[in-house]
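Hello forum,

I keep getting stuck at the same step: I have a sequence, I want structure tokens, and every attempt I make locally crashes halfway through. Rather than fight my setup again tonight, could one of you with a working pipeline run this one for me? It's a single chain of 421 residues.
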Amino acid sequence: MGTVLAFDFGEKRIGVATGGVGSNPIRYGGSPTALAYTDGVLEEEFRKDGIKVEWQFFKGAGPAVNEALVNRQLDFAWQGDLPSIVHRSNGVKTRIILGSGVRTGLYLGVQPDSGIQRLEDLKGKKVGLFKGTNLHLAAVRALADHGLKEKDVKLINLDPAAAAAALVSKDIDASFDYVGLFNLRDKGLAKIIWSAHEDNFKYTRQTVLLVTDEFAAKHPKAVERVVKVIVRYAHKYSDENRRAELFDVWGKAEYPDKIWREDFIGQPLRVRLSPLLDPFLVARYKDAANESFDLKLTRGKPEIDSWFDRSYLNAALKELKLENYWPAYAANGQQVGRCGQLLALDQQPGQRQPRLDMLGVGFERGAQRIECRVGLCLLEFGLSLLEQLFSARDSGHRCGRGWISLHHSRYSRRNDLRRRR
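Reply #2:
Ran it on my machine without issues. Output:
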């Protein structure tokens, strides 16, 4: 997938491209960049300068975006890891300036009556996959960790629409895709048997905002303004109190709100909407560069560290006073850095308060059980999640049980909460 921003100050033009759905206007959701597009805030930002904002959408996704970058038709690109690594390895000079769509999910859908129950069962099967996009590497990485090489599976290059049609017509046995699979499942045309979020963070997909070196050198102030606008919107919708509003906005843009709601279960908005260029994101791009080379998708391994230019993001975070708002993650996926004040629960007078590392949130109703752990600074997310689960109306059970737990090396506490509907 890819979205591209293109500036041509000679003609007062800003262009942005992604696949999207519909026409006049094209709609898309799932990231802070999409929110900025939907609300027209970039147009508003540059209108006073007489600069027209033009959004270009490429159905060919990341590979098509690369062609436009090579032809110097675009100045910004919202693009997944694999296609951006391909253009960097081919000498296209860009800078990664903003995370916008990190830890995005990946799902495996199969036919409703299929005997495929896990990734290992895909050996010898025909599997749809949009090659050349950030779906590609994530799927191959997951297969490899489950004992399957790419040659063990018949991977067929299909875009999401074609893959969905092929799965319904039984021309393929399975398909790796994103939330579009939920539509097929809800119609009884597919079942989802694997999720990256439920397996390992390594199989999630990463998307960033890039700018060409040429444009950044000529118009650094314009780059600063673009980054600040998107960071401001990421902050607006990282508030757990806006969770329902966020999914309503995306529900009108692309997929129904219930699909986004399900995709985000157990995941803090501050994690999924984070703009940070943290060690986790850098490590995923290094992994992707190595994997692209090993799969012969690139001729060489591009250098990664200097590709990340944090100057614009750091300036925006400082100006908006958001330096400590989003949690940062290490290469291994563990939270690092400052995350605000810790809580003091059940502390007796004169007792030394132990260091609390993680907040656990769980919910159980009938056969439904959900549990996750997040950084303690995301307590508001945990409480909000419990409230949403308790008030859910899609279950016939009359009561549920939820819990909050605190964790560190020497201490653990769990509080059980019960609430009758």
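The chain is about 35% helix and 20% strand. If your local run keeps crashing, start a new thread with the error log.
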